[in-house]
Amino acid sequence: MQAARMKSPVASMPTEILGDIFDIAFRSSSEARSRVAFRAAISQVSRRWRDVSFSLASLWSFIAPSISRTHILRSKNHPLDIFLDTTVGCDSSHWWHINVSLDSVLPYVSRWREFHAETVDAYAMCAITTRLAYLSAPLLERLTLRVKRYWEADGPFPPAILFKRGAPRLESIRLHNISLRASLVPSVTHLELRFTHFGDDALTVMDFFSFLSSMRSVVDLTLDGSIVETENYVWSFPHVVKTLHFPYLQRLIARSAYTESWCAWLVGAVHAPALLFLAVHIFNSDEDDYDFPPVLRAFSVFASAPRYPSLRSLTLDGVRIVPDPATPTSVLRDFMRALPSLTTLCLACSDHGRVALWTTLLAPAAEPLWPRLQRLCLLGGPRYTDYEPIGPPDDDGTRECDVLANVLQHRAAAGMEPLRALHLDPSVLQHITRASSPEHRDHDESEAVVHDACLDADERTAVYADRRVDVLRSHVAVVLEPDAPARYDLKCRACALFWTAGRVACMFEGVGLEGSTGKEYCPGDAMPYSCACTPGG
């Protein structure tokens, strides 16, 4: 038996290679429990594996304070990644657990590379931030603070003060239901703010400006939920008196649960000449008293001097497209003029909104609108509402298909590049092909259309369409996205949308999104509305 083991490839593998395998496997998982379980498992396989694992300082640099301090000693002088989760098994010893955990890791704050803390409520988070207020973290690069469930009775809490003595290497901040003072973050390149509550803890307009204005080096910015309190502030654009300058910003995501005007105000306030990707998501908007589309008007105000001259990928989800009949259609034209470099558009709105855009593209213009457009993703759903045009409805989708076909023909006649891909959500495809009404089909057998120039060979998919989309296929490939991985719950409207939007955005070279699955778009438990991915949602 011993001779057989000695002849096995693993047994004869050099210690350095075995150590590299352990290190790569350990770093491949971002979940705390998986990392802890992995290093515990490999250290119990054999005496040799145990010796190799103990010799790897990086393997023991990920510290969950509930674990023995022995792991800190094994990490030697390697930078530490601290993960403090107080949301599991909370009981009467909750506060004791927080203090004991902090006592075990605070002496090593000079070695922290990442600090991640999750609490059930804001009181517990305050207990953590209070002890971090006047510390120095010279190696800290990533900071995540997450309050799982925020109750209005918990607040209001003032913005936290952290690492007042300095955190010069801090690059990434993720805050869920907690705000920080501006002095902490001048060097941050990645910032994510998520507020899922609607209490008194939202930032004032001036605090918000002060906070973001201090981060001129930010590259990736996500603003989600009720971050700014809007009750006593008018959000229309004549009242925007300041501009947020982000010279290095490349990716901006803005989400709002109930107010489109907040996202419109943000779009109008931000000046980002290097911005490549912009996504605006409005969920369950209850603002029906506007006589113009707020977000589109925010773009149109700066049509003559675009604030996003480099923008290549735009996602509009739930954003109102069709203006009131009393509003001039120049709003749509100016919106397009404000985005001269656009190559990818992901649109989730009503069919009336889509037709309004196509009609605007056909209207005579002094200069071509969206001349560089290469990819178009159309998503639909019953919750997207626009002002309906006067006249009989086009329930069979005939008008949209015809207008879109005319747009493609018009672009070809004008010498513009043809679209590389037209991505149709199943509901949109069903709408324009009248798939839900068999009696309206032009023929019994649907034609199978196999794509494709944009997807890999193993991702090709068949799209069944009737003759109504033949004219579209003559100018562009009609594509349906392949099925998403099983881990995404696509029965949840939000997850399906985020997955598809991420998929399309990642197809564009140069956007710089991580991965190609769109997983980073999945809202998880942070969205400010009920979601199938939300625990208990």
TrEMBL record:
<protein>
    <recommendedName>
        <fullName>F-box domain-containing protein</fullName>
    </recommendedName>
</protein>
<dbReference type="InterPro" id="IPR032675">
    <property type="entry name" value="LRR_dom_sf"/>
</dbReference>
